[in-house]
Design brief:
By secondary structure, the chain is mostly helical. The chain has a single domain, classed as Skp domain (Protein Binding, DinI Protein, Chain A). The protein has 5 helices and 3 strands. α2 packs parallel to α5 and α3 runs antiparallel to α4. The two termini are about 25 Å apart. Keywords: Signal. Belongs to the Skp family.
């Protein structure tokens, strides 16, 4: 859920900047379903698969070393590998965030959108760009 919170914050910042920067520009509004992007985007799925592989790799390494380590050494090794996993996870989340932001910027310019909002926060109207984002993230 931290990933979702992080992405929500990133999008909020991007959208706020777009809103403030776009006040004098076109009145067109784009909407995006972030949950759909996170579940259907091939690029996001690829990052998730890479993260799963890394997690399994580190877990297997820990299991392999378990028999030859004392309890204290095992604990240290576990903490070290967990820190390594979290670092990789943060790097991948940063790459996903950057990719989505770049894609949103491009689509906003292409479609002349003054602001992009979350779809669940818009009762009616706006141009849904969710599928455009998913397609461009491939």
């Amino acid at each position: 859920m931290k990933q979702g919170r992080k992405l929500a914050l990133l999008f909020l910042l991007v959208f706020t900047a777009a809103l403030l920067g776009g006040c004098n520009s076109s009145g067109n509004v784009g909407v995006i379903d972030v949950n759909k992007v996170m579940t259907e985007s091939p690029k996001v799925k690829q990052f998730q698969e890479q993260l799963n592989v890394k997690g399994k790799e580190l877990s297997d390494q820990l299991e392999k070393d378990k028999a030859s380590l004392s309890a204290a050494d095992f604990q240290k090794k576990q903490e070290t590998l967990y820190a390594e996993f979290m670092k990789v996870k943060q790097e991948m989340e940063g790459q996903i965030d950057s990719s989505i932001k770049e894609t949103l910027d491009g689509i906003a310019k292409e479609k002349k959108l003054g602001v992009i909002l979350y779809k669940n926060g818009v009762a009616q109207g706006g141009t849904d760009i969710t599928d455009d984002v998913i397609n461009k993230l491939q």
